[in-house]
UniProtKB/TrEMBL annotation:
Lineage: Bacteria, Pseudomonadati, Pseudomonadota, Alphaproteobacteria, Sphingomonadales
Annotated spans, Disordered: 426-462
Official protein name in the record: TIR domain-containing protein
Occurrences of domain TIR (ranges): 10-133
UniProt xrefs under InterPro entries: TIR_dom (IPR000157), Toll_tir_struct_dom_sf (IPR035897)
Signal peptide stretch: none
Compositional bias (Acidic residues): 435-462
SUPFAM superfamilies given in the database record: Toll/Interleukin receptor TIR domain
Natural source organism: Sphingomonas bisphenolicum
TM segment ranges: none
Length: 462
């Protein structure tokens, strides 16, 4: 009778291609710790016998099977086959904890692993890994190589790596350059003796951006833009002004404002101006984590068809809202913004997805919204996000080369469109298998009743 091989390996069962990224990350971390790791996505060499070797490792080498678990994986036939084999092995070797589920999202456990205690990776991959390493090392004492085999770690990280080509590649950022800004920042004070509560109340709803400061505020707007709002009972007194360049570079010494504080004040003023501009275009705010907002358009506000754009070398046509009959949800492309002064004055734009059931009101279940974001656009790649952002900006700017953000009755911040771009001296081509079919994905195919089809090739992704 042949001697049984030592069970010292860790086998990772996962859904492909949906969980390839997580499996590569986890496999690399475990390999770096000296564990022997097996998973189909970790194949380091070609060959027709790889599948046979993989099954041999599961049947004869595996000390534990890590099941990457979410609703997609537990419903995949290939994963279910591996669960069945692993369950048979568990009974044969007498290990009731042979299968360790790694929870990436809530899932309905198959009968064969209903008893298994999972490790939670949903909230944090790092926290999940820490718990997994404790379990493998302290509880199950899975052997590992010492010292760590650096070549294995390197090879795992280089899986699916692309060869750099000596060919220039155009890259586009998410930075909107400030092409024009107000010339001066102004300080106003209220008369002495005005109660602070009255001041605070009066500052709300001001027609132009302002930041409270001492017994008054800072703003770009002149007094005649604001006095009607405050009324005769709160006459404004000019307390000084400073060029914006000096304010941002050196602060305001007379008012004991340090440069880092002045840059924060500037960012706050720009944010207020942007939010007013968004509201004027009937965009809606959605509260994200912390204080950040996502601005999106209702179904009756944003174009329902493709938005065509032509911005220099960048051109295309994209939907910025749509409806998924599969999920019974409307999706809305939106943005979050933040003003920055370094390395150049710009507004950083982050792409967002907001979901609604009626096209009018954002989903109020924060957890459900988060789950939809993670699953809905899993097949979208850089080129699609880039084009959707450009289409959204083209629509917001009404086809103009700048997006005007009024800061007073006479001055605006002009944001250049398209975003800042560069040319890299080399390029990294994407392989065709970087794309996934996704029925939630909007296309320009007008013959598709749902407006969803397979994702197009993103070989030009920036």
């Amino acid at each position: 009778m042949d001697q049984e091989e030592p069970r010292e390996a860790i086998f990772i069962s996962h859904a492909s291609p949906e969980q390839n990224m997580f499996t590569l990350w986890l496999g690399a971390k475990l390999a770096a710790m000296g564990y022997e790791v097996w998973a189909d996505v970790l194949r380091l060499k070609g060959g027709d016998d790889w599948q046979r070797k993989l099954e041999h490792a599961l049947r004869h080498r595996a000390a534990k099977v890590l099941l990457v678990a979410d609703p997609v994986s537990v419903d995949k036939q290939g994963v279910r086959n591996e669960i069945q084999i692993a369950s048979d092995i568990a009974r044969r070797i007498g290990d009731e904890e042979f299968i360790i589920p790694l929870k990436l999202a809530p899932f309905e456990a198959p009968f064969l692993i209903a008893h298994a205690q999972y490790i939670d990776f949903e909230k944090s991959w790092a926290a999940g890994l820490a718990e997994l390493l404790d379990v493998l090392g302290l509880t199950y004492r899975i052997p590992r190589t010492e010292p760590v085999n650096g070549s294995v770690w390197r090879d795992v990280h280089l899986i699916n790596a692309r060869r750099i080509q000596s060919q220039p590649e155009a890259l586009i950022s998410n930075w909107l350059l400030m092409d024009a800004v107000p010339k001066r920042i102004r300080q106003f004070r209220f008369p002495d003796g005005v109660p602070q509560a009255a001041i605070d109340k009066s500052l709300k709803g001001a027609p132009w951006p302002l930041v409270p400061f001492r017994e008054g505020f800072l703003t770009f707007a002149p007094a005649h833009d604001l006095q009607d709002h405050f009324g005769p009972s709160l006459p404004l007194r000019a307390a000084g002004s400073l060029s914006l360049g000096a304010f941002l570079d050196k602060g305001w010494e007379e008012n004991a404002i340090e440069p880092w504080v002045s840059r924060n004040i500037f960012a706050d003023l720009v944010r207020q101006g942007l939010e007013a501009a968004f509201r004027s275009r009937q965009l809606e705010p959605y509260q994200l984590s912390g204080t950040q907002l996502a601005w999106w358009a209702r179904a009756d506000v944003a174009p329902s068809n493709q938005v065509a754009f032509q911005m220099g070398q960048w051109s295309g046509s994209r939907q910025i809202q749509g409806y998924s009959s599969k999920r019974g949800l409307h999706w809305h492309f939106g943005i979050s913004v933040a003003a920055r002064t370094a390395p150049v004055r710009h507004v950083r734009v982050l792409s967002r997805l907001i979901f609604s059931t009626d096209g009018q009101n954002a989903m109020d279940d924060v957890k459900k919204m988060h789950r939809q974001r993670r699953s809905f656009a899993k097949g979208w790649r850089n080129a699609r996000w880039r084009d959707m952002l450009l289409a959204f900006l083209h629509w917001m700017a009404e086809g103009k080369a700048v997006l005007e953000v009024p800061m007073s009755s006479s001055e605006s911040i002009a944001l250049k469109i398209p975003p800042m771009q560069w040319t890299a001296p080399v390029s990294i081509p994407l392989a065709g298998d970087d794309q996934m079919s996704d029925e939630d994905d909007p296309t320009i195919d007008e013959d598709d009743d749902d407006g969803f089809d397979e994702i197009e090739d993103a070989s030009d992704a920036a």
